[in-house]
TrEMBL record, chain A:
Gene3D superfamilies for this protein: 3.40.50.10890, Ribonuclease Z/Hydroxyacylglutathione hydrolase-like
InterPro entries the UniProt entry points to: Beta_Casp (IPR022712), INTS11-like_MBL-fold (IPR041897), IntS11_C (IPR048662), MBL (IPR050698), Metallo-B-lactamas (IPR001279), RibonucZ/Hydroxyglut_hydro (IPR036866), RMMBL (IPR011108)
Gene of this entry: INTS11
Organism listed in the record: Aquila chrysaetos chrysaetos
Family, per entry: Belongs to the metallo-beta-lactamase superfamily. RNA-metabolizing metallo-beta-lactamase-like family. INTS11 subfamily.
GO cellular component, as recorded: cytosol; INTAC complex; integrator complex; nucleoplasm
Localisation: Cytoplasm; Nucleus
Name of protein: Integrator complex subunit 11
Domain Beta-Casp: 245-363
GO terms classed as biological process: RNA polymerase II transcription initiation surveillance; snRNA 3'-end processing; transcription elongation by RNA polymerase II
TrEMBL record, chain B:
Organism: Aquila chrysaetos chrysaetos
Record-linked Pfam families: HEAT_2 (PF13646), INTS4_8HBD (PF24493), INTS4_C (PF25458), PDS5 (PF20168)
Protein's recorded name: Integrator complex subunit 4
Subunit comment: Component of the Integrator complex, composed of core subunits INTS1, INTS2, INTS3, INTS4, INTS5, INTS6, INTS7, INTS8, INTS9/RC74, INTS10, INTS11/CPSF3L, INTS12, INTS13, INTS14 and INTS15. The core complex associates with protein phosphatase 2A subunits PPP2CA and PPP2R1A, to form the Integrator-PP2A (INTAC) complex. INTS4 is part of the RNA endonuclease subcomplex, composed of INTS4, INTS9, INTS11 and inositol hexakisphosphate (InsP6). Interacts with BRAT1; interaction is required for the assembly of the RNA endonuclease subcomplex.
Family the UniProt entry places it in: Belongs to the Integrator subunit 4 family.
GO biological process: RNA polymerase II transcription initiation surveillance; snRNA processing
InterPro entries for this protein: ARM-like, ARM-type_fold, INTS4_8HBD, INTS4_C
Domain Integrator complex subunit 4/Protein SIEL C-terminal Ig-like: 824-966
Length: 600, 969
């Protein structure tokens, strides 16, 4: 039985370093190639030795697909392609291809320049890696090779995020990457057609959450920021450079404009300008509003938001600062946080998910005293707020996507095990499809039942559908033809044509059967009784009584003779060609039951 | 090479010319033929190839065919149809048959048999489909005949088994449009035909082609529209279609479900996978809610729209649409309402607003929680945050309709509506503000909600701000802080956008009169009075101070204790405002100030309104005085006109009526004056001055009659006759005057002829009204008509003169409602001293903002005129989109006028005014205007003293200071 095998190398019952291996109909595909935020050792990258111990990866993988530019989905890519060694194609959407190297370079700088790590990928490696990337458009079907094809769908989440359908013959897998089912201030909602894949691999970050309307969240957020600023406090919003940051910027920008506020808004890193540039370019990937109004004013040209300098953090007075990275685990956001944490007027707003082990996670779970590097104890007095702005689908959104795509199996990744368990139950109960949640390194095997396409000649199809009653949808229909399997293809042709092609002569095959009936009457009377009986039952067929004393039902011949020994027993000879096998066997079984006793 | 190419080009070119030539000659030939059918026959016979034939048919189709020759043409076409082998030609013939049978006055029953016969042998599916379409046309023309319909339906049923989707599509359409609707008819006709149409259509709900499925649902809806009561059994079928792969099917299915839910709201349907049962309307509501999160936005819009009209739905279902989290098993077990709430509050799902509240806890009963089946949950939450603004608008509209019928729902949806005020698309914001206004009777705003609402006042869009003012007019506020907040925000708005002045004052007027008790404690603060110290008197011209006073005075109307808190100057200001802004400041009963509290007794009912009586009395008086001496009549008319004009100024609701009659009397007066001159009979050249007076009178009467006809809304045909009659008299006067002044007889012939034609057309147009016009000018004229036609111009003039003198004065019956069209240009204000500078030769855009009242079809009639100091006039037709309709009878014109001129040495004023265009032949005019509205034409017409021919100025001109500078080199 054909099967699809899925092995997560990362993101199995976990968030971070997404990397999923899928083998489908003999093709091996790697989905995403990310790093883990929580670790600084070897665990930060997926274990590629699982694929092969020795030898190039290129021989084992047909292609690599990157869903979007977040580092936990693409962070390990240069390491994988340049250091481990992979030369095959890498697929991503155009915006991802544009923005991904900026983030990788930033990541490299932090790790190598700041932390002084060696044995890390270099700038040149990032460039070489990006040369292997093939960019795809939305809804464009890309033939990786003759059998394997992939297609991207819009996923929301961040600019350029896509869901990918991987298809070999009739078997298909959809990998969602990260997606968002509710539109936000700058992106639209994920959308997929009813593609009915064999397997849907879905993220499940918010498996147990059903979020309030986003408008409530926006209002809350603005209110909190506004209040703090009016109090004269400083607001720190740790974000990842790209994605949520842009949404929140648009939100604050429009709010500042409307309320005519004067407090400065800063955005921390230099890479934003470059990234914003791309946001301005890829307008087609944004939501309806921005697409419609960019002619008058591109929403990403901010008026109130300025670049941040390290010295500004000590300035008096209120301000709002967006700083990277988003989980407060390193970099500028952590520096600012340390400076501001002691004042209760200030506020930190965590707009998204925090991985366990990061400072962000600690303060959100209520720790007020943090141990920093060098045994320092930092007391957190500032207000800590959490607001789920991260653009992942919530439970209802995940269910909605499953409903839209109608998969035969669902597999959950990118989430916490306990929460997945809950959602898994819901999915199984709701859609009656089986749901899996493998851990890292665990292989899930899914058996598929692919339909096999067969070519049929139009003439035969028309002829066969013309026979009999109305063509009824969704009901199997019996048809006669010859199946020719040749050169890996299947064809259904009419028997005559098959004979002609194969150069064979036609043989007539006839079944004959004798049925004994106890009937003391004369032969022709018996025949008449049989005739009446059959006519009574087979209303849809033409039953004829021929002058030579035989009966025909369609092309089936029935003759009656008296038994040579016993005159009371009549022998009915039933004869049919193999084409009429169905009707013939039905007739014999009917006659074997005998004639009805009461005869007219 | 080049030469060769050139040659080829020429060759091709000449070829093209030849073909055109041929075509032309063919056309000419046919034009001279007497019979269409013969011509067509000849053409078709001539055609050598199918392409030729097709060409002829296409040309033929461009021209209409007279009713008499339709049948002949059809016969010819059919004849060719049978002969034709090419399917495309047959297709065209089939479509022509349909086109021909649409001809008005032609009864297609004679060709029906032939059309049905052609179906028998047709092999091409496309032609079949087209023929069925033709039959549909024939059928719709013969709806009165049940047997024809039955026959067509039978034909359609026969072809339902066709393998082409197009044919099946048409068959279903045919059945939908012609299928028997009444049960009785079905029984009368023999059993075979009495097949259940609904069943036949229902069978195609699961056809293999989505287009056929859609057609089937549409046919079902068509049957419903025609009055057939659909069976409830279809409901389950329709529900299955909601999960169809194709959006058009789903979209149609949503409609069908909605129809069924309106037909059988109370019947009970079982819930699959449980033993429970619920009302059908609730079930359908749930299902449609479900479609609000469909994959296709077309379906989402459709679903969201329909939700609004499902008012019978139970309230707890309704309320779930606003709560996404209540993962109801409400749907399954209504008794378990409480349990479900517990379930939710126990936190099985987290809201995402607090960190860590989604940590997994012990499960209570996962079996009861049902994510998707409970489709109704949060439908509106989804709809309101949809990606497409079309869906959001539809959702807001639906919310509005549901909230209007259910106060408790209105209360609940308030938060969501308030949230929509911050939508990113202006249209959505505007729509939600309007919605809020419509449901404001049911709700009271909390302070935080008010805060969000008021924040929108800073919006830069005028439409939004004004909508918000309207909303605040009818909002209920719960606390005095709320009122204060509203006032502060409105004043902020006023300083930011001074043009909103009127709208803000009006808003505060209503705010004050609605919440007198809440305003009372605020009064000292607002007036900044102090118990011990005298505070400086505020500036009376400050719009902000006026705004505060408007709020307070309106509150004081129903709060007698308030005036005690006023300081002296407040009373003075009251007196001033009561006079200058009487529409905003109500009469107050102020203690110790009898002068101010002039009692307007409110006991007078509109029926015995003395001013109305006065109007009628004065008119009576005028009409009764037939036989006074001329001098007396003139004087009386003059007095009455004066009275009426004054009355119009005083009583705004009677202004239209008074002005209308005053104008009429003015016309009469002018006519009398012109005729009363004693010097009429003396030879012409001596009395040039006299003639000038009479001809000027005639001209003025003409103008006034146009004004009467087109500037008033509510004019009925009775008045139109009189107006036209007056115009006819003026024309007669004109004729007489010209007869006197011109020497030769030649020009008079033409004029007389024209005048007699007009009399004739008057008679034709208003023949029904003539009996009411005994003794009038026209009545007498018509008596003399035979004589007039035969006599010479000079005699005609004489006769006219005497009839004019002898004719009586017609009563002008007054219609119920009469309003004069008025326009008021708000912007430009004409007060600015800073000239608008621009480089000569380039254009400058001038914003024009005007309110129009009682203008019918302003898109077609209102024009903007710009007069330059050099006498140049420019006429601008505003775009239809520039007109908004804020209320019945009111329109608002917000447009831009482009100005340009050559350089001037110093700034100068131009005049901008609005004109009402008319055309004396109204029906023609409207058609013409409709065509020309799209082209925003800028016509420079020569200026005449009284505006442009065919237009009436109806607004005060506004002066704008402009300065075209010479271009810098």
């Amino acid at each position: 039985m054909p099967e699809i095998k899925v092995t997560p190398l990362g993101a199995g019952q976990d968030v971070g370093r997404s990397c999923i291996l899928v083998s489908i109909a003999g093709k091996n595909v790697m989905l995403d190639c990310g790093m883990h935020m929580g670790y600084n050792d070897d665990r930060r990258f997926p274990d590629f030795s699982y694929i092969t111990q020795n030898g190039r990866l290129t021989d084992f993988l047909d292609c690599v697909i990157i869903s979007h530019f977040h580092l936990d989905h693409c962070g390990a890519l240069p390491y994988f392609s340049e250091m481990v060694g992979y030369d095959g194609p890498i697929y991503m959407t155009h915006p991802t291809k544009a923005i991904c190297p900026i983030l990788l370079e930033d990541y490299r700088k932090i790790t190598v320049d700041k932390k002084g790590e060696t044995n890390f990928f270099t700038s040149q490696m990032i460039k070489d890696c990006m040369k292997k990337v093939v960019a795809v458009h939305l809804h464009q079907t890309v033939q990786v090779d003759e059998e394997l094809e992939i297609k991207a769908y819009y996923a929301g989440h961040v600019l350029g995020a896509a869901m990918f359908q991987i298809k070999v013959g009739c078997e298909s897998v959809v990998y969602t990457g990260d997606y968002n089912m509710t539109p936000d201030r700058h992106l639209g909602a994920a959308w997929i057609d009813k593609c009915r894949p064999d397997l849907l691999i879905s993220e499940s970050t918010y498996a147990t959450t059903i979020r309030d309307s986003k408008r409530c969240r926006e209002r809350d957020f603005l209110k909190k920021v506004h209040e703090t600023v009016e109090r004269g406090g400083k607001v720190l919003i740790p974000v990842f450079a790209l994605g949520r940051a842009q949404e929140l910027c648009i939100l604050l920008e429009t709010f500042w404009e409307r309320m005519n506020l004067k407090a400065p808004i800063y955005f921390s890193t230099g890479l934003t300008e470059k990234a914003n540039h791309y946001y301005k370019l890829f307008i087609t990937w944004t939501n309806q509003k921005i697409r419609k109004t960019f002619v008058q004013r591109n929403m990403f040209e901010f008026k109130h938001i300025k670049a941040f300098d390290r010295a500004f953090a000590d300035n008096p007075g209120p301000m709002v600062v967006f700083a990277t990275p988003g989980m407060l685990h390193a970099g500028q956001s952590l520096q600012i946080f340390r400076k501001w944490a002691g004042n209760e007027k200030n506020m930190v707003i965590m707009p998204g998910y925090c991985v366990q082990g990061t400072v962000g996670h600690k303060i959100l779970s209520g720790q007020r005293k943090l141990e920093m590097e060098g045994r320092q104890i930092l007391e957190v007095k500032m207000q800590v707020e959490y607001m789920s702005f991260s653009a992942h689908a919530d439970a209802k959104g995940i269910m909605q996507l499953i409903r839209q795509a109608e998969p035969r199996n669902v597999l959950l990744v990118h989430g916490e095990a306990k929460k997945m368990e809950f959602l898994k139950q819901k999915i199984e109960q709701e859609f009656h499809v089986s749901c899996y949640m493998p851990a890292n390194g665990e292989t899930t095997t899914i058996f598929t039942n692919p339909s096999i396409p067969v070519d049929i000649s139009l003439g035969l199809l028309k002829r066969e559908t013309a026979i009999g009653l109305l063509p009824d949808v969704k009901k199997p229909k019996l048809m006669h033809g010859t199946l020719i399997m040749k050169d890996n293809s299947f064809r259904l042709v009419s028997p005559e044509q098959a004979l002609k092609e194969l150069g064979l002569a036609e043989h007539q095959l006839r079944f004959t059967c004798r049925v004994h009936i106890q009937d003391p009457r004369k032969e022709h009377e018996t025949v008449l009784r049989v005739y009446n009986h059959l006519k009574g039952i087979l209303k849809d067929y033409s039953v004829q009584h021929l002058p030579d004393g035989s009966i025909t039902v369609e092309s089936i011949l029935i003759q009656a003779t008296a038994h040579s020994e016993d005159q009371g027993t009549k022998v009915l000879l039933v004869s049919w060609t193999y084409q009429d096998e169905e009707l013939g066997s039905y007739l014999t079984s009917l006659l074997k039951k005998g004639l009805p006793q009461s005869t007219s | 090479m080049a030469a060769h190419l050139k040659k080829r080009v020429y060759e091709e070119f000449t070829k093209v010319v030849q073909q055109q030539h041929e075509d032309l000659s063919a056309k000419k030939l046919r034009l001279t033929k007497p019979s269409k059918s013969a011509a067509l026959h000849v053409d078709l016979c001539k055609a050598t190839s199918p392409a030729d034939a097709l060409q002829y048919l296409l040309q033929f189709a461009r021209k209409p065919v007279e009713v008499e020759s339709v049948e002949g043409v059809v016969r010819i076409l059919l004849e060719h149809y049978y002969k034709e082998n090419d399917a495309s030609v047959r297709l065209k013939i089939a479509s022509l048959l349909g086109l021909l049978s649409k001809t008005a006055g032609f009864s297609p029953d004679c060709i029906m048999d032939d059309a049905i016969n052609t179906l028998q042998n047709e092999k091409s599916h496309q032609v079949l489909a087209q023929l069925l379409d033709t039959l549909l046309v024939i059928g719709t023309k013969l709806t009165e005949n049940p047997s024809v319909r039955m026959r067509l339906v039978e034909v359609a049923c026969k072809h339902l088994t066709d393998s082409s989707h197009g044919v099946r599509n048409k068959c279903l359409q045919l059945i939908g449009c012609l299928g028997p609707v009444e049960k009785g008819v079905a029984k009368e006709v023999e059993s075979q035909a009495a097949k259940d149409v609904q069943k036949i259509i229902g069978d195609h709900f699961n056809d293999q082609d989505p287009r056929v499925r859609t057609a089937a649902i549409k046919a079902m809806l068509q049957l419903h529209e025609r009055g057939l009561k659909l069976q409830q059994a279809i409901y389950s079928q329709a529900c299955k279609l909601l999960a169809d792969d194709y959006e058009q099917v789903r979209s149609a299915a949503v409609q069908l479900i909605w129809v069924l839910s309106q037909l059988y709201p109370e019947s009970i349907v079982p819930i699959p996978s449980s033993n429970e049962e619920i009302r059908l309307v609730d079930d359908a509501f749930g299902k449609i809610c479900h479609m609000v999160s469909d994959g296709s936005w077309v379906v989402r819009v459709q679903a969201a729209k329909l939700l609004g009209s499902m008012q019978q739905v139970s309230s707890h279902f309704l309320e779930q649409t606003l709560d996404k989290k209540l993962m109801s098993d409400l749907r399954r077990k209504r008794t378990a309402h409480e349990r479900a709430k517990e379930l939710y509050s126990s936190g099985e799902f987290s809201s995402g607003r607090k960190w860590g509240d989604d940590a997994p806890k012990e499960e209570i009963d996962t079996g009861a929680v049902n994510l998707i089946e409970s489709g109704a949950c949060g439908a509106f939450v989804h709809g309101l945050e949809d990606e497409m603004y079309e869906v959001r608008i539809a959702a807001v509209e639906a919310l509005c309709m549901l909230a209007q019928s259910s106060p408790s729902f209105a209360e609940k949806c308030l938060d969501f509506l308030v949230d929509m005020f911050n939508d990113e698309i202006e249209e959505v914001r505007l729509q939600s503000i309007h919605t809020m206004r419509k449901i404001s009777n049911n709700i009271t705003l909390r302070e935080d909600q008010l805060d969000t609402v008021l924040a929108v006042l800073e919006d830069s869009s005028r439409d939004i701000r004004e909508a918000l003012h309207e909303l605040l007019c009818c909002t209920n506020v719960s606390t005095k802080e709320g009122i204060h907040l509203a006032l502060v925000e409105l004043l902020k708005n006023l300083t930011k956008y001074p043009t909103d002045r009127e709208s803000i004052w009006k808003c505060l007027k209503f705010l004050g009169s609605r919440h007198p008790t809440l305003v009372l404690p605020l009064v000292p603060e607002l007036l900044s009075t102090h118990p011990f110290f005298d505070t400086p008197e505020p500036d009376m011209d400050d719009p902000a101070y006026i705004a505060v006073l408007v709020l307070i005075f309106n509150a004081a109307k129903s709060c007698p204790t308030m005036p005690a808190l006023f300081s002296d100057h407040t009373f003075r200001h009251y007196a001033y405002l009561r006079d200058s802004l009487s529409h905003l400041v109500p009469p107050l009963r102020l203690p110790g100030r009898k002068l101010v509290s002039s009692p307007v007794s409110p006991s007078i009912t509109p029926h015995e309104d003395p001013s109305q009586q006065f109007l009628h009395q004065s008119l009576e008086r005028v009409y009764n005085l037939q036989h006074l001496d001329p001098q007396g009549i003139q004087e009386l008319l003059e007095f009455t006109i004066r009275d009426l004009q004054r009355l119009g100024e005083l009583q705004s609701e009677l202004a239209g009526m008074a002005d209308f009659t005053a104008t009429y009397l003015q016309c009469q007066l002018l006519l009398i004056k012109a005729l009363q001159e004693k010097l009429w009979n003396v030879a012409a050249p001596l009395y040039l001055k006299q003639n000038a007076l009479a001809s000027a009178a005639a001209k003025q009467i003409l103008e006034e009659t146009y004004k009467m006809e087109f500037m008033y809304s509510g004019v009925e045909s009775r008045q139109v006759v009189i107006i036209h009659h007056m115009r006819l008299q003026a024309k007669a006067l004109q004729l007489i005057v010209t007869a006197r002044t011109t020497r030769g007889v030649e020009p008079l012939f033409g004029m007389c002829e024209k005048f007699l034609q007009e009399v004739d057309s008057f008679q034709r147009c208003f023949i029904s009204e003539l009996p009411h016009m005994q003794g009038s000018f026209v009545d007498k004229l018509l008596d003399l008509m035979p004589r007039l036609v035969t006599s010479k111009p000079s005699e005609v003039v004489k006769i006219l003169q005497t009839t004019l003198r002898q004719s009586t004065f017609l009563h002008l019956p007054l219609p119920e409602q009469l309003h004069r069209a008025t326009a008021n240009i708000i912007e430009p204000t004409g007060e600015s001293d800073n000239p608008l500078r621009f480089t000569s030769g380039l254009v400058v855009a001038l914003d024009v903002d005007a309110t129009l009242e009682h203008v019918q079809d302003p898109q077609g009639t209102v024009k903007v005129q710009v007069l330059y100091p050099d006498g140049q006039a420019q006429l601008i037709h505003p775009k239809p989109a520039d007109f908004r309709n804020p209320g019945p009878g009111r329109h608002r014109l917000i447009t831009q006028v482009y100005l340009s001129h050559t350089a001037w040495t110093e700034p100068c004023q131009i005049e901008v005014r609005l004109l009402l265009a008319y055309n004396s032949n109204r029906s023609k005019a409207s058609a013409k205007i409709l065509k020309s509205t799209w082209s925003e034409s800028l016509e420079a017409l020569p200026q005449s003293e009284n505006g442009i021919e065919g237009t009436i100025p109806f607004s005060k001109p506004v002066k704008v200071y402009i300065m075209p500078k010479p271009a810098r080199r």
